[in-house]
């Protein structure tokens, strides 16, 4: 009896060890990187068309033509709605220079759209015609000051002209890579139209922080900025030194928080919400180095949240 029981125990142990060894040596299932979720095959043509329509409006300010819609939907479906295909569509609208009737090119339409959005953010959507209307009297004042020998007035008015002209030129210069997004934003808060909107130094400091950083300055930041602008006093702000309005604007638009503000702005415009801390941190890794706002927009616009492809 004891011998039979011992044999049964031995057979059980052999079987257990064999199964364990087999399981330990079995191959893990293959993992496919960046594999698209299987439910993409269930996304309707209507949802895909809505996505294409949204991308076109957000990037170039208009709906796609019928031929464009058909081509984009076909390309996305052929690629199974892959993130690569989505990014290719967005990138095309940002960079393609082929002639497009009514738009000149996708790239031109994209940068014009971004320029107008910038003016809406900072300058209450002042049109170029309205900016030129402001320039007219300033130019007349230059002539009068010249005739009267008021050379100090001439210099001051030329400075006003230069700053408004910088706004008007920023669209094409940014599109051609001659300036960065920080330069465009700096031009849009450092001109007489912005000053007219915000009236005085008190309002200017508060408005510039709010417009760029989506927050108001701390008390220490406010007084540093105010004294820098109002009295040309040397001050330290955001870890940098300055003592006049131009240097104040330069400090703000070259700060890390400026680029964080670009991410917040992009999320507000494209997703109508604030980014999470982790979303901001992830995008800041590249943005702080390359200053590529277009890459940030693409990262947002290829997501299922933006496309409404979520289950």
Question: How does the SSE layout of this entry go?
Answer:
Elements lengths: L1 H24 L19 H16 L5 H13 L4 H13 L10 H17 L5 H20 L3 H25 L5 H9 L2 H7 L2 H13 L5 H13 L3 E3 L2 E3 L2 H9 L2 H16 L5 H14 L2 H9 L2 H4 L4
Antiparallel strand pairs: 1-2
Structural key phrases:
311 residues, mainly alpha, 4 domains, two-stranded antiparallel sheet, 16 helices, globular, disordered N terminus
In short:
This protein is mainly alpha-helical. 71% of the residues lie in helices and 2% in strands. It folds into 4 domains: 43-107, no CATH class; 114-198, no CATH class; 199-210 and 223-254, no CATH class; 258-307, no CATH class.
Describe what you observe in this structure.
With 311 residues, this protein is mainly α. It has four domains: 43-107, no CATH class; 114-198, no CATH class; 199-210 and 223-254, no CATH class; 258-307, no CATH class. It is 71% helix and 2% strand. The protein has helices spanning 2-25, 45-60, 66-78, 83-95, 106-122, 128-147, 151-175, 181-189, 192-198, 201-213, 219-231, 245-253, 256-271, 277-290, 293-301, 304-307; strands at residues 235-237, 240-242. It has a two-stranded antiparallel sheet. Strand 1 and strand 2 (240-242) form a beta hairpin. It is globular.
């Amino acid at each position: 009896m004891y011998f039979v029981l011992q044999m049964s125990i031995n057979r059980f142990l052999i079987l257990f060890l064999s199964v364990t060894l087999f399981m330990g040596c079995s191959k893990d299932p293959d993992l496919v990187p960046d594999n698209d979720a299987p439910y993409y095959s269930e996304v309707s043509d209507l949802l895909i068309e809505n996505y294409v329509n949204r991308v076109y409006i957000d990037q170039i300010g208009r709906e796609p033509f019928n031929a464009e819609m058909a081509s984009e939907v076909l390309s996305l479906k052929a690629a199974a709605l892959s993130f690569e295909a989505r990014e290719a569509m967005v990138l095309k609208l940002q960079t393609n220079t082929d002639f497009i009737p009514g738009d000149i090119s996708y790239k031109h339409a994209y940068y014009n759209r971004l320029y107008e959005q910038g003016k809406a953010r900072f300058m209450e959507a002042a049109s170029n015609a309205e900016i030129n209307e402001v320039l007219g009297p300033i130019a007349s004042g230059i002539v009068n000051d010249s005739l009267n020998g008021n050379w100090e007035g001439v210099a001051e008015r030329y400075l006003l002209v230069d700053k408004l002209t910088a706004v008007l030129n920023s669209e094409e210069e940014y599109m051609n890579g001659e300036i960065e997004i920080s330069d465009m934003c700096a031009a849009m808060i450092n001109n007489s139209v912005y000053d007219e909107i915000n009236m005085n130094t008190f309002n200017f400091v508060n408005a510039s922080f709010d417009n760029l950083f989506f927050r108001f300055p701390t008390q220490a930041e406010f007084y540093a900025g105010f004294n820098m602008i109002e009295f040309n006093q040397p001050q330290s702000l955001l870890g940098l030194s300055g003592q006049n309005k131009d240097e104040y604007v330069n400090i703000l638009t070259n700060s890390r928080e400026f680029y964080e503000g670009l991410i917040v702005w992009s999320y507000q415009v494209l997703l109508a919400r604030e980014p999470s801390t982790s979303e901001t941190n992830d995008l800041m890794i590249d943005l702080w180095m390359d200053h590529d706002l277009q890459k940030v927009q693409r990262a947002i616009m290829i997501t299922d949240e933006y496309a409404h492809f979520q289950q």
